[in-house]
């Protein structure tokens, strides 16, 4: 166990605490949603990840897993159903693909981000 050092500040001894140096990893939409969820509903886990320096790695991993899951679900579902012809029925095609993406995002949010 590490020994904590203290510095004198007036009449008080304050611990010399600092967060570990971590590489700042860019996170996407799902990583930001996960961070908000952890800060709001899972404060203990958020504090543990933050203080150990593993928060951004965790958020990047969740973001990657969620994006891959959405892409997989959209790809599998679009192969199973017949999409409208993109050249002749643009609005129907856009509506169908948006619906598929929103359904896939809902699944990914429930199974990965908010778990």
Automatic annotation (TrEMBL):
Q: What is this protein called?
A: TnpV protein
Q: Which organism is it from?
A: Sinanaerobacter chloroacetimidivorans
Pfam families reported in the protein's UniProt record: TnpV
Q: Which InterPro entries match?
A: TnpV
């Amino acid at each position: 166990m590490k020994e904590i050092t203290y510095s004198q500040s007036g009449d008080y001894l304050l611990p010399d605490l600092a967060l570990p140096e971590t590489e700042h990893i860019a996170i996407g939409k799902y990583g930001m949603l996960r961070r908000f969820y952890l800060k709001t509903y899972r404060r203990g886990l958020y504090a543990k990840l933050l203080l150990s320096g593993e928060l951004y790695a965790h958020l990047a991993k969740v973001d990657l897993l969620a994006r891959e899951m959405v892409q997989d679900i959209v790809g599998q579902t679009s192969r199973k159903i017949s999409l409208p012809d993109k050249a002749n029925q643009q609005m129907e095609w856009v509506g169908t693909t948006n619906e598929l993406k929103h359904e896939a995002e809902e699944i990914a949010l429930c199974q990965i981000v908010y778990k």
